[in-house]
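REQUEST FORM: STRUCTURE PREDICTION
Request ID: SP-0412
Submitted by: Lab K.M.
Chain count: 1
Length (residues): 104
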Amino acid sequence: MRVSPAVRIVRAAVFAVLCVLLAAGAHVLATGQAPLVWTQVTACVPIFAAGCLLGGRERSLVGIGGVTLTTQGGLHLVFHTAQPHHTAMAMHAMPGMKLTSSPS
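STATUS: Completed
RESULT:
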């Protein structure tokens, strides 16, 4: 069953926005910092384009789940890469390391 271009655009826009918001929310829960707004907006563009390409016909739940999972993984990498890293955050991420001060 073919879908009109207007419906395809609406589906793609909803998919892109929901994926980015879900990933941003998970990023906040994991790191305590929200991704930058420009990063979120920029991330919507390729997801919207992919959604337009894939939204031409009905997909199975497995197909939708696979694309959503892949998108979430990609967004995690984008948000992590775009986030400024501080030494304290990097050291916090290494649970086996102990921070000690050197004797002066």
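NOTES: Helices lie at 5-31, 37-54, 61-82, 87-92.
Reviewed by: T.R.
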